[in-house]
Write a structure and sequence with these properties.
The protein is α/β, with parallel strands linked by helices and about 240 residues long. The chain folds into 2 domains: about 10-95 and about 205-230, Rossmann fold; about 100-195. Helix content is about 40%, strand content about 15%. It has 8 helices and 7 strands. A 4-stranded parallel sheet has the order 2-1-3-4, sandwiched between helices. Strands 6-5-7 form a 3-stranded parallel sheet, sandwiched between helices. About 45% of the residues are buried.
Amino acid sequence: MSEHPAPALVAVAHGTRDPAGIDEIGRLVELVRQARPEAAVRLCWLELAEPLLPEVLAGHPGPAVVVPLLLSTGYHVKTDIAAAVAGRPQTAVAGQLGPDPRIAAAVLDRLREAGGPPPAGVALVGSGSSDPEAAENLAVAAAQLEQQAGCPVYPRFLTDPRWHDGLPAGIAVASYLLAPGYFAARLADLARTELGADRVSGPIGAHPNLVEVIWDRYAAAARTLRPDIRAGRPDPLG
């Protein structure tokens, strides 16, 4: 056994009041635990659900890697999480999950469950952010999905009231959201009432591809800790 335990993986999600969303994120984190049963894995939230990230970190004085369960960067990654780990030299912050080709493949799986991508193309719709880098992340994710789906993919933010403008008829809508909640429900409604789409995928949810990405993000961040802190960390999935 290593003298120094591996840093805990602290998975932090945005948060929702929707019980279905909390359950789905819980299922995802349970898959993360099952993939590396020797590792300590904690789930927490940034808002709207408990426990919150500062509370979990306060109760875990040892080394940790915070992995944002977020698909794009933005205020939560750059400000909220950064503030929560300030002054904790034994804590590293991993990059957000997306964009990643494995996530695009998971989106495509969900889209196939809804009927598959039509020749007219797909609108890849995320929740939205005022951070220009988040728009860049979504554009990369759309390019990855386009390559895998073999049809045009149009990146859109749901917070843009004109998100459906300029989209061709007969298009499908792919959810670039992790779990059920306010944005997922609103997207499903608007995709049908404002766009007339008859193929609307559900959130990505507890997909095995996300488990791989989460452990990869963990491993990359753990390597930034001092060797004595990161000793014994689980290897990323092969």
